Amino acid sequence: MRAGPVRKAAAALALLARFLVAVVVSGVQTVGVIGRATLKRRAPPAAFVRVPFAPMSEQGAALLACMVTLTPGTTAIDIDLRRRELLLHVLDASDTEAVLRGIRRDFEPGLVTLFGREG
Hints:
There is one protein chain. Helix content is 57%, strand content 16%. The chain is built from 4 helices and 3 strands.
């Protein structure tokens, strides 16, 4: 079932709000990571992480990658549309499951409403 225009507008506004909150929260967390690394003279573990994403169009996947990249501490390196995976560089990989949960909670619901596909 396709989302109507009102539902899509509400999803877009909610997605924008969640994205802005994620940028601010991630910015504060990234400053903390950098500060702790500077004080301890030891950087946290960074990593490349593959993150599966919900079925969505190419435009939705590209927007997801952009949103992840614009969120401090993460950078999308590659989008694999066939596997529906993003390859991310994560500045602090001490809890990659939290990164995955954040993407699924904050970005995917709105993007699926706007750009979702079956299966």
